[in-house]
Amino acid sequence: MGIFKVFKSLVIDSLDTITKGSAKYHLWMGFLTLVMLIGMYCYSIQLEEGLSATGMSDRVSWGLYISNFTFLVGVAAAAVMLVMPTYVLKDIDFKQAVLIGEGLAVAALIMCLAFVVADMGGPSVLWHMIPGIGVFNFPNSMLTWDVIVLNGYLFINISIPFYILFKHYQNKEAKKSVYVPGAILSVFWAVGIHLVTAFLYQGLQARPFWNNALLGPRFLASAFAAGPALIILVLAVIRTFTAFKIEDKTIKKIAMIVTVAAQINLIMLVSELFKEFYAPTHHSESAYYLFFGLHGKTALLPWIWTAIPINVLATIILTFNKFRNNLKVLYVCCGLLFVAIWIEKGFGLIVPGFIPGPYGKIVEYLPSGIEIGVTISIWALGAFVFTILAKTAIGIELGELRYKDKNAENV
């Protein structure tokens, strides 16, 4: 009963914390709520009209929703780049940032699941994803494996930080024997969630654009560049608006991870471009469509020719210590890199796989206003969830939230 009493106290204190704050905090939360309400209106139109309200069709059946899902799986997996140095390699410089990284992973995974629900057309078909009830098709379906690993990783990233914060809330130290095995498991699980997502595309024989042995490793490289880049930007905001101390050397170490991952990502991109264009076959048509257009169809050209130069520029700047150690330059480069990889792993990966179709027909895709509204609202949901988690965690870590045992006080 004692644990439930502490848990109840934690919930009450957390609710009190997240409903109080500065004017900027309330404006931020109000803005996110407004965006989510607009998205709910857009989603209600999609529920009424069906997926025809989006820009998707029977020719291009995966669009903005699955593009964001794929990208956010990588953002979630990137938390491992803080978990491994902190819990496995015992690097204390990462200790202050690791809980923030895991909170970001939880928010990213919630967004992933929301994008899957949006892409399926509505929550009424979710029962298909429940083992033993729906048509789960285990173990043959790669999508089944994706559902399992994503939910498993979500559970790990909720349970480990919760255990640590729950102990700190009681002014106790968390037992390493309890959370370190889970942290080590999460390292392998993080790699698994992104590899399985890559296998989901690689296993579709009729889509030669995705039949690439480098797809899995490149997924990981781009994830370990974009994810920590976002973590750096979030830490910058937290340093500015809260009393939570994040050392410069912590941010600079994460920046080194971003730089190395971005460099590896570019090397793999060059390898892919060589394979597609040095000795092209009819299987290279999707790549030609993406980079140069095909038969006068050029909808994706502005996207990819924006992403690649930004990606290259940000990586080159980060390569030099002088620029990377300048925090203002670092923040700009991380923002550019994040946007570039979002475009490249979204429109640059998902949509071209469908164009041209298996019978050579070209049907272009651009998202509708309804899709864009739902997408932005899901990102707002992720930001809302992360803000709540971060505010509670920071309160506990700063000692502002502590369990008060009334019985002990009376004694």
From TrEMBL:
InterPro entries (alphabetical): DsrP-like (IPR054823), NrfD-like (IPR005614)
Entry keyword set: Cell membrane, Membrane, Transmembrane, Transmembrane helix
Spans through the membrane: 27-46, 66-85, 97-118, 147-166, 178-201, 221-242, 254-274, 300-320, 329-352, 372-394
Protein localization: Cell membrane
One Pfam short name: NrfD
Topological relation to the membrane, as annotated: Multi-pass membrane protein
Major subcellular site: membrane
GO CC annotation terms, alphabetical: plasma membrane
Entry similarity comment: Belongs to the NrfD family.
Alphabetized PANTHER family for the sequence: POLYSULPHIDE REDUCTASE NRFD, PTHR43044
Name of protein: Prokaryotic molybdopterin-containing oxidoreductase family, membrane subunit
Organism in which the protein naturally occurs: Cellulophaga baltica
